[in-house]
C-alpha cells in the first residue's frame, strides 16, 4: 500500500511538471502579448491609447525575454516563494486573485460530483437490472439528456425559466443581501437557491458517463456466481443486488472521478460564464483572451493540479474500498 | 430471478458447435436494443439530410430579407378550404401581416390565414450538384414566387430561413464530428495499436502521455490552440483546424480502446498460432487482429462523435470555433445565446433541439453497438 | 425622445472666473445616516466638512430626499469604465450637461495666459479628501511629479514629449500648469475623463509608497509581495479610473461616494457609500449626494445583467445591456420591471466606417484605393436603406463619416455626399478610376483580377457580421469581388503597420467629439487605419514606416497643429472647419449610416435623471448629468 | 425406507428467447431425495443437470419457466410445491439457505470478492436465525472450525482471495450449512479443486451428512466421485434423465447405451498389457434445438434403430429402484434389425 502511494506520488509530481510546462506553452501560443490585446480592448471601448503608456508598461512587465527564461523565472517563483507572478490586467499578484475563486470551483464541482452520483446510481442500477425494457429506455434517455444539451444552453434556459416562472434571477452564488454576510441558515438557503442550477447542469452533463460505466460493470457482475450464491442464501432480490453486484461494480466507478474531473472543470468554465459564478472559469477565459499570461498560466496549472490530486484521491479511495487492491492481490 | 437474458443456445451449451458469422451475431444482439435501433435510423436520417442539404433546403441559407426579420414559423398546411366550404389538398404556408414598432425596435408578425402561398414539391431551383456529384435543378420544396415568405421554422434576425440554415448547418456539424473522429481514429489506431502490439517501454510511454492529456481540462487546451490558430485563415482552413484541435484531444480514448484490444488479443491462441507460422507483424495485425475488433472500434468511434459535436458548439459559444458566415449548429446556437431570443424568438433554439436529438441518438446507437460487440461488458 | 438643441461646443472660459454664489448659509443639511456619526463626534459637523464655497448644483427636476441604494452591475471585475462614469467624474473642471461649456468643479476659477502656455487654477477653499485631510495644490504637484517618472506606466498629457508640462504651486489653493508650447485644448482634456489623473492622488497618503518621500518604500514593496515600488504604488494608489483604484478602500477620494466594499479580484460586488466630505450642495444647501449607497454586482454574464434589469433589480444602467437586440424585451418589460427607457444620443456618427488602405504597400492597390473615384464608386454601390432596414429595423439614416447633426460642425453635404444607391454612377466612377469590367467582376486596367479583402472583427459588434454580409452581396452585385476576413482583434492591430491589408472596418467615432477624435477626417493617429503611415509621419513615430502624406493631408496636419496651440475658441472652431472641408473634398473613408439613439434603463422612482443624454467616452455619461443629485422618490 | 424430503415429478424447464423458438432444456424429470441419502446427478456439460438443481431453489434465469411438473418439498409447515412459488417470494426465500442450501463449483467467484468470509456467513445466520451480529459471528467461527478451517477466528476476517481453493470451498460449505439445512445441493463442488483437496472435501461432505442427517443432491460429471459419495444416481443426457437408480445397481448393470458409454470412457487401473483402448462416445452433444423428438441420444447411439428418433422411450423399470429410458428395453431386437 505504501509502495502504491509512493509510486502514485512520483507519477503525480512528474505529471505536475508536465502540466506546468504545457500551461506555460498554451499561454504563449497565441500571437502578440498582453499589451497588444490591451490596446485593442481600449480601442474597442472607444478609449484612446497612449503609446507612451504602452511603452512604459512594456518595460515594466519585462516582455521580450526568451521563452525559457520566462518559464524558469515563473516556475522558480512558484516553487520557492509561492509567487505565481503578476496579473497584468488586474495589476495584482496572481495569488490574490485565484484562491477564493478556486475554492468556489472546488465547492461547485464537489457538489456536482455528489449530485452526479445521486442521479447516476439509481438510474445505472435500474437500467442494468431492467436491461432492454421500456423502463430501461426511459431511464437512459433521462440520464443522458443532460449530456446531450449543450451546457451553455441548459444554463441559460434554467436562468431564463426561473426568471419567467419564479421571478428570480439565479445568477451568482448569493443574492445581494447575503453576498458578504456570515454563514447562517438563511444564507445557506440562499446559496442553495442559486447553486442548484450550475450544480444541476454540471452534474447532469456527467451522469451519462457514470450510468454507462455502472451499467456495463453491473451487467458483468450480475452474471457472476456470487450473485447466485447471495440469492441462494434467501436474501430478497433488491438486497442481493445492492449488497453484492452493486457494491462490486462501484469500485471501478470510484476511479472514474479522477477523469471526470477534467471534463467537469471544462464545463464549469462555460457554466460559470453564463451563470456568473465567481469561480476560476470566467477569470481563466478572460485571462486567456486578454493574454494575461501569468494569471492564465497559474489557473491552468492549478486546475491541472486539482485534477491530478483528484485522480490521486480517487485512486487511494479505490484502494481503500477495494480489498483486492488494498492487500495487493492481482 | 436472474437478470441476463441468454439465448437458449448460450444457456445450454457453452461451446457453440456451429459458429455464426461475427457480424450476423452482432446484428442480432444489436436488434435486441430497440432504443439503439431507433437511434440508428435517426442518425442515418440526419446524415442523409447533411448529404442532400441542397435538395432539402427550401432556400439559400444566406438569403436575407429585411421584411421578415424574426418572422415566426409558418408551419406547412396541407389542405385549403375552397369557396364552397369543401377541403382540397393544397400544401401551402400562410403569409404574414407585419408592422414595424419603432419604439420597441422590432417587427411584429401575425400569420395571415387569408393569404395562401402554395408550396411546390420538387420545385425548380438554381442548378447545383447533389452531394457534390449529380447535377440537379430541383429542390424538395419551394414557393412559386421567390419573393413570398417561406419560413417553415421561422426566420432569424436577418430574415434568413432557419430551416435552410439548419439543414446546411447539419452538414458542417455532423461532418466535423465525423472528420474529427476519423482523424482521432487514425491517431488512436496507429498509436494505440503500436502500444498494444509491441508493449514494453513504448506502451508505457504512450499510456503516460494519454493519462496526462486526459488529466488536462479541455477548455484551456481548446482556447489556447484555437487562439493560436493563424487568424488570417479562411473558413475552410479554420474548419479543418478545428477538426484537428478536437481530434488532438479525442484520440486518447480511442487509443486506449485499441491498445486494450491489442493487448488482450496478442495473447490469444490464434495470434500465437499465426506468429508460430511465421506471419509478419503487419500481416498478423491486418489479417488477424484488426478484423476481430473492428466492431469495438466502430462502437468506440460512434461514441466519440457526440463529444466532437458538443465541442464544436462549445467552441462557437466561446467565440473561438467556427464563426459566421459559416453555418453550423454551433454558430446558429451562438445566435440564439441571448435572453432576447429566448423571450421573443424561441424557434431559433431549433439547432439546440437537433443537437440534443443527434447526441442522444449517437450515444444510444454507440451503446447498442458496444453491447452487441461485447456481450460481456467492457 | 426629442433631442435638445446642441449649442456651441467650446468653452469661452478664457477670462472666466466663474463664481457661482456661495451656498445660502442657512438650512444646510446632511443625510440622516451621518447624524449619528456627527453626534458621537466621529465626524465633524457639516460646516467643518464643506468648503467655504461649496459647488451649488441645480437639480434637474427638483430638490431630492436622502436615502436609497442605486443598484447596477459591472461586467466582470475589470469593468472600471462603469465606475468611472458613475462615481469618478470629478476633475478640476467639468462639462455642463449640454456638453457645450466647461464649468468649474474642484477649481472654482482659472486664468489663461496670453500665450496659452500658463493655466492658473484656483481651488475651492477648504476642500477635503474623504478621510478629512485637506485637498491642496500640493496634491496636484505630487501627481505630476509621480506620473512624470519614466518607469511609471500612466498615460496622460503629463507625459507628453511634444509639449511637456510643469506645475508651479503658488499657495495651498492656487497653482499653475505651465506648458512649453501653447496649448489650446488642455481645458477639454481636463474636463474629460483624462483630466481625472491630475486630481486622483492624495500626497498625504500616497507619498508613503514613493521612494522620494519614504526611503524604505522599495523594501516595503518587496515585503508586501511586489517586485518594484511602482507596482506597489500602482496597487495602493491607482490613478484616475484604473480598475485597481477601486480595490483599496484606504485610498482617499474626492468623489460623491467612496469605497465601502472594494472591487478586488475576487469580489462578487463592489459597493460605495456617501462621502461625508463631499463638497457639493443643492440649491437649498443640502449636502449632496442624495443617494446613500451604490452597489454594483460583478457579473461575467451579460444575460444575467439583462435579467436583473428586466426583474427591476437595476436602478440605472445603460452599459452592456442596452443593446439594439435587447430593445424589444426591455421595451416590453417596462411595466413588470417598474423601469423606464430614456434616450442616449451616441457620439458616434456611423454604424460602420469602411476604410480602404490608402497607404497600401502594393503599388497598384495603393493607387486604386487612393483614387477618390474608386471610393465614390464603392459608396454608390451600397444600398444603405436596405442595411438600415435589415440590421437596424429602420433606425438611422444613410450617413458618411461626418460630424453628427447635433454638432456645430454638422455639414449636411458632407454627411450625405455619395450616399444614394446608384449602380450607374458607381460604374462611371469605377471607369474613371481605371477599372475594367470583364464579366462578373471588375479588374485592373491590365486585366489582373481585383479582389478586395476586408478585415472585420465579429466579437466586438455583432451587427458588423450582418452588415458586412449584406455589404459583400451588394458590392458583389455591383462587380466588386469582396472577401470578408473575420479575424481576432489583436491581429487586427498587428496588421496595420505592415500595410498589406486592403481595408478594415470600425465604428464612427468623432461624431460629437470632432476635435478630440478626428481619426476619419484626417490622419491623426494609429486609429486612422486608412492612412496609417501618414499618421506615423504626423506623430513622428515609427520612422521606418512613416510616409510623407499627400498634400491635402499635410495641410490638415498643419491646421491641426495650429488648432492645438490656439487659445481662442472661435479660432479653433474655424480651423477645425477647414480641416473638415478638406476631408469632405477628399472623401477618405466611406460611412454607412447614422446610428440610431441608444437608451438607458432607469427605475421609475429614480428622479432628476436627464433625458435624453449625450453618450460618449470623453463625456462619461451619466457622470456629467450629476448622478449625485439623483434621488429615489418616496412613495 | 425414509419418507422422501423432496420429489421432483415430471418436471420440464423451458427457455425462451426473443427471436427463437422456446427450447425445452429439461424434460419430464423425476427425482426423489431422502434425508441422509445422496443422489448424484451425472452427465456431460450442458445436459441440464445444473439447471435441474437450480430449479429446486428457483435460481434460474428469468427467461426460464417450469411449464409443467412439480417440485414437492416437505417443509416444516407442510408440503410445498416449489415449482409454483414466485422466485422472489417470502416463502421461497424462507426455504433458500435455510432449509435447502447450495454449494457451487467455483469457490472463488461464488464468494463476493469485497466482503470477508465472516461477513458473508454471518449474513445468512442473521437473516434466517435472527441472531445478533455478535452471536452470528460466534456461530460462523464454530462453523468454520467445524469444516476444518484452521485458525477460524482469524480467517473469518479474511477476504476470499486470501484463502486457498480448498479453504474457500470449506468456507462455502460452512456457509451452506450455517442454518443446518435439510437438503444440500452441491453443484460440482470439487471440479475446480486438485485431487487431494477434492478427496478432503468429499470426506468432509460425507462426514457432515452423517452429522447433520441431511439429504444431498450432488451434481458431477465424474463417475469416480459418484462411486465415492452417492447412494443413488441419475444419469442425464440433453435434458433427459436416461437412467436412474441405486448407485451399485446402475454401476453394475448399466442399461442405457449412454450410461454404458460413460462407464466405458472412465479409465480403470489395469496392467499395461491388459489395457484396452477407452471407447469415447462418438460425436459431440448436439444443441438442444437439434434434439430429436424421440430419444435424445439417437444421434450418438451405436444401437440406434427405427423408433429412436421419433418416439420418446418410456421410463422402464429394470429392477427395483432402477429405471432407464431406452427402446432397447421395450422393443424386440428384430425391429432393430429391420
From TrEMBL, chain A:
One of its GO terms (biological process) is transmembrane transport. GO terms for cellular component: plasma membrane. PROSITE patterns: ABC_TM1 (PS50928). It is a multi-pass membrane protein. Coiled coil: none annotated. The keyword Transmembrane helix applies. Its main location: membrane. Keywords: Cell membrane, Membrane, Transmembrane, Transmembrane helix, Transport. Gene3D superfamilies: MetI-like (1.10.3720.10). Belongs to the binding-protein-dependent transport system permease family. This is Peptide/nickel transport system permease protein. It comes from Devosia crocina.
Automatic annotation (TrEMBL), chain B:
It holds the Pfam family OppC_N. Residues 170-366 form the ABC transmembrane type-1 domain. Keywords: Membrane, Transmembrane, Transmembrane helix, Transport. One of its GO terms (cellular component) is plasma membrane. It is a multi-pass membrane protein. The keyword Transmembrane helix applies. GO terms for biological process: transmembrane transport. It comes from the Bacteria. The chain crosses the membrane at residues 35-57, 172-200, 212-230, 236-258, 290-309, 345-365. It is found in: Cell membrane. Its main location: membrane. Signal peptide: none annotated. The keyword Transport applies. InterPro entries: MetI-like (IPR000515), MetI-like_sf (IPR035906), OppC_N (IPR025966). Belongs to the binding-protein-dependent transport system permease family. This is Peptide/nickel transport system permease protein. It comes from Devosia crocina.
Automatic annotation (TrEMBL), chain C:
InterPro entries: Peptide/Ni-bd (IPR030678), SBP_5 (IPR039424), SBP_5_CS (IPR023765), SBP_5_dom (IPR000914). One of its GO terms (molecular function) is peptide transmembrane transporter activity. It holds the Pfam family SBP_bac_5. Keywords: Signal. SUPFAM superfamilies: Periplasmic binding protein-like II (SSF53850). It is found in: Periplasm. Residues 101-512 form the Solute-binding protein family domain. It comes from the Bacteria. Residues 1-27 form the signal peptide. Its main location: periplasm. GO terms for biological process: peptide transport. GO terms for cellular component: ATP-binding cassette (ABC) transporter complex; outer membrane-bounded periplasmic space. Belongs to the bacterial solute-binding protein 5 family. PANTHER family: OLIGOPEPTIDE ABC TRANSPORTER, PERIPLASMIC OLIGOPEPTIDE-BINDING PROTEIN, PERIPLASMIC BINDING COMPONENT OF ABC TRANSPORTER. This is Peptide/nickel transport system substrate-binding protein. It comes from Devosia crocina.
TrEMBL record, chain D:
One of its GO terms (biological process) is peptide transport. This is Peptide/nickel transport system ATP-binding protein. It is a peripheral membrane protein. Residues 8-263 form the ABC transporter domain. Pfam families: ABC_tran, oligo_HPY. SMART domains: AAA. The keyword Aminoacyl-tRNA synthetase does not apply. The keyword Transmembrane helix does not apply. The lineage of its organism: Bacteria, Pseudomonadati, Pseudomonadota, Alphaproteobacteria, Hyphomicrobiales. One of its GO terms (cellular component) is plasma membrane. It comes from Devosia crocina.
